[in-house]
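Whiteboard transcription, Tuesday session. T.W. wrote the C-alpha cells on the left side:
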C-alpha cells in the first residue's frame, strides 16, 4: 500500500509538473511570437518612413536644381541680348559716324541729334522687350513652381494617408492576436485550476483511503 501510495503521489506530481512546464512553454512561445511580430512591424514602418523621407529630399533637390537651371538660362539669355544690343548699338554708331563724316558740316548737328534719338529709341525698345520677356519667364517659372509644389504636396498627403492606414491595419491585427493569446492563456489558466482541484480531490480521496486502511489495520 505504501508503495502504491508513493507511486500514485509521484505520478500525480509528475503530471502536475509536466502540465506546469507545458503552460510556461506555451506562454513563452506566445510572448516571443508577439514580440517578433511587433519588431517586424516597427522595422518595416521605420524603413518605409526613411525611404519616403529620402524620396522627398530627392524631389526637393531636383526641384531646386531645376529652378536654378531655369534662372541660369534666363540670365544667359539676358546676357546674350545685352551683348547683341551692344553689338547692334556699336554698328549703329559706326554707321551714323560714317554718315556724319560723309555729310557736310551743316548737317553734323542734325546727324548727332538723329543718333541720340535712335539710341534712346533702341534703348527704350530693348528695355521694354527685355522686361516683357523677363516678366513672362518669371511668371511661367512661378506657375511651374506652384504646380510642382501642389503635386508634391498631394503625393505626400496620399503617401502619408497610406502609411497611416497600413499602420492602423497592422495595429488592429496585433490587437486581435493579443486578444486571442490572452484568451488562450486564460483558458490554460482555468485548465490549470481545474487540474489543481482534481489533484486536491485525489489527495483528499487518498488520505481518506489511508485513514480507512489505518482503521482496518487497527
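and on the right, the sequence the group agreed on:
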Amino acid at each position: 500500500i505504501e508503495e502504491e501510495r508513493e507511486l500514485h503521489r509521484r505520478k500525480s506530481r509528475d503530471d502536475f509538473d509536466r502540465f506546469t512546464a507545458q503552460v510556461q512553454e506555451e506562454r513563452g512561445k506566445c510572448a516571443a511570437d508577439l514580440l517578433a511580430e511587433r519588431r517586424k512591424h516597427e522595422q518595416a514602418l521605420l524603413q518605409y518612413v526613411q525611404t519616403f523621407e529620402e524620396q522627398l529630399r530627392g524631389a526637393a533637390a531636383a526641384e531646386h536644381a531645376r529652378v536654378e537651371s531655369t534662372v541660369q538660362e534666363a540670365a544667359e539669355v539676358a546676357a546674350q541680348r545685352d551683348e547683341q544690343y551692344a553689338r547692334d548699338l556699336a554698328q549703329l554708331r559706326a554707321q551714323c559716324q560714317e554718315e556724319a563724316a560723309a555729310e557736310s558740316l551743316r548737317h553734323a548737328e542734325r546727324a548727332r541729334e538723329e543718333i541720340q534719338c535712335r539710341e534712346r529709341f533702341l534703348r527704350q525698345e530693348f528695355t521694354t522687350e527685355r522686361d516683357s520677356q523677363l516678366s513672362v519667364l518669371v511668371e511661367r517659372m512661378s506657375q511651374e513652381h506652384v504646380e510642382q509644389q501642389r503635386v508634391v504636396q498631394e503625393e505626400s498627403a496620399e503617401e502619408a494617408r497610406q502609411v497611416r492606414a497600413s499602420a492602423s491595419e497592422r495595429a488592429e491585427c496585433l490587437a486581435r492576436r493579443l486578444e486571442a493569446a490572452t484568451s488562450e492563456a486564460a483558458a490554460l489558466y482555468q485548465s490549470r485550476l481545474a487540474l489543481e482541484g482534481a489533484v486536491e480531490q485525489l489527495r483528499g480521496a487518498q488520505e481518506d483511503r489511508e485513514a480507512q486502511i489505518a482503521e482496518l489495520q487497527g
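Someone added at the bottom: DSSP finds two helices and no strands in the chain.
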